[in-house]
Amino acid sequence: MTKEQQVYKQLDKVYDPELDQPLTELGFIDHTKIHDDQVEVVFRLPTYWCSPNFAFIMAEDIRTCVSRLEWVREVKVNLIDHCASDEINQGVSKGKRFSESTSQFGASDGDLDELRRTFQIKAFYAREEKLIKHLLAAGWSNEAILAMTLEQLHELPLSEEGSGMREGYLEKKAQLHHSGVQAFTTPEGDALTLEGFSDYLLGAKRTRLSMEFNGHYCRGLLEARYDLEATGTEMS
């Protein structure tokens, strides 16, 4: 695997916090430059006015993920065509906190941490609903799904698609620091009830569809802004 391939493999792990989709799939990564042990990642967003909070989270995550490569000694993050490009690029490259980098936008580090958690919860709902929907289509009953333990979920033979859903869902459970044994819970780690299961799934589906719609909309804006080839996506 070339150095560039290794960098892009790491960038596949960087998600838009609001959309819960990889920056590489969204088309947000413009290009990379690699010189020996130095990496520059150039990324772009759908509009000039995209939230500086979101942009900073993405820039910070880019730097963190690429820095995990053993041969990388320096990562330069370069956000282009954005109202806060200079502040974000300088702040992230120097390892500064959000409040130090973009004080003129009036948000604190606490606000950014809270924002991250809000998006983690939304992503949890979306990933959980997709996995449960997959299990229901495979013939699992509501009762069996609610009774399933994490160990059983880990051992469940699934298709490649289903395995990907499981991996993504368990990743969010880990981020939210769930410690119980139940496979499917609320974002807070509380048990789900059979009586409220249908309403819970409906709410989770609405969250997922909203995120998917926003992702489709952002792709369209990016394609129009940079005259890119359209990529068709479907929601279900």
TrEMBL record:
Signal peptide: none annotated. InterPro entries: FSCA_dom_sf, MIP18-like. Coiled coil: none annotated. This is DUF59 domain-containing protein. Residues 4-77 form the MIP18 family-like domain. It holds the Pfam family FeS_assembly_P. It comes from Paenibacillus validus.
